[in-house]
Design goal:
Blueprint: E1 3-7, E2 11-17, E3 32-38, H1 40-50, E4 54-62, H2 65-76, E5 80-87, E6 93-99, E7 105-110, H3 119-125, E8 133-137, H4 142-155, E9 158-162, H5 171-174, E10 179-183, H6 184-191, H7 199-211, E11 216-220, E12 226-229, E13 234-237, H8 251-264, H9 269-283
Parallel strand pairs: 1-4, 1-8, 2-6, 4-5, 8-9, 9-10, 10-11
Antiparallel strand pairs: 2-3, 6-7, 11-12, 12-13
């Protein structure tokens, strides 16, 4: 069984609950305020650990109270944080999140120490093996992602690239990636065309993403599940209705982390997608991002 090696972002999530999301210029009263672990990289490494993988996180925090708190919280999820570095002259990344009564959310990011993550840091931390899965996101620098992708590919590791926030990636870089993961909006940005609006257009978008170079693509569709393609086959996997939706904040990251864990455990891609969809469907049942992952079931090696 391989490891899941996540190079990416870690934040303190400051979340307020509101009856509905505010309109531009509008002030609303919130009903609760929480401070929790967040950041797409940290969330995905936590989800991978809950799904049963040996999960290692490479990133940076500031030398502040927030950094110490979220480092301890990430470790409590079973993630190896020995390569989570502390920068003395910057602050920990912050995400300010509003969550509505229906579970929808808006997020504003301040990268902080996440802007200091480098490819050299990853190379000094670990040497991937062919059984490992390296996971990246758009919350660290594009140049850093490109250099890590080339390094991980040379080592023979599989690469899962969650291009979120989305940006256009050179085809020669995408050709080194095993799986690209995006949501509907991000799929439109990466492809340079309107975002998919239904299952059929999501399947077409997944095919289009594979056409850019990666071996496979997954388009997450929120409450509608996900659409995937490997160039030869494509499929829509519906979300599971496991209970009332409480908070959608960490669902996409849960799906990415569980998908990576399943690949590291030896699952084929369709099976890994199903594991990711199940994890995302589980994460919406509780508040928070990583805080909602306790219900994710550990995977069994095939």
């Amino acid at each position: 069984m391989g490891r899941v090696i996540v190079i990416g972002s870690i934040n303190e999530d400051i979340t307020v609950t509101v009856d509905r999301l505010p309109r531009p210029g509008e002030t609303l009263s919130g009903t609760s305020l929480t401070h929790r672990l967040g950041g797409k990289g940290a969330n995905q490494s936590a989800a991978a650990a809950h799904a049963g993988a040996q999960s290692l996180f490479i990133g940076r925090v500031g030398a502040d109270q927030s950094g110490a708190a979220i480092r301890a919280e990430l470790s409590s999820h079973g993630v190896d944080v020995s390569h989570l570095l502390v920068d003395d002259d910057t602050t920990t990344g912050i995400a300010m999140i509003a969550v509505s009564a229906s579970g929808e959310n808006t997020i504003i990011l301040d990268a902080g120490a996440n802007g200091r993550v480098t490819a050299e840091q990853a190379r000094e931390a670990v040497e991937p093996s062919p059984g490992d899965v390296v996971v990246l996101q758009g919350e660290i620098g594009a140049e850093v992602n490109e250099r890590v992708i080339r390094w991980a590919h040379r080592a023979g590791a599989r690469i899962v690239f969650n291009i979120a926030p989305a940006y256009r990636v050179a085809p020669e870089v995408l050709a080194l990636v095993d799986c690209v993961v995006v949501n509907e909006t991000e799929a439109g940005i990466v492809l340079g065309r309107p975002a998919p609006q239904d299952t059929d257009s999501a399947l077409d978008a997944a095919d289009g993403l594979v056409g850019l170079g990666p071996r496979s693509a997954l388009v997450t569709l929120g409450g509608h599940g996900a659409a995937w393609s490997d160039g030869d086959r494509s499929e829509h996997v519906p979300a599971l209705e496991l209970g009332p939706v409480v908070d959608t904040t960490g669902a996409g990251d849960a799906a990415v982390g569980a998908l990576a864990a399943a690949l590291a455990a030896g699952s084929d891609f369709p099976g890994a997608v199903r594991a990711g969809v199940r994890a995302g469907s589980t994460a919406v049942l509780a508040e928070g991002a990583a805080a909602s992952y306790a219900g994710i079931e550990p995977l069994q090696a095939p």
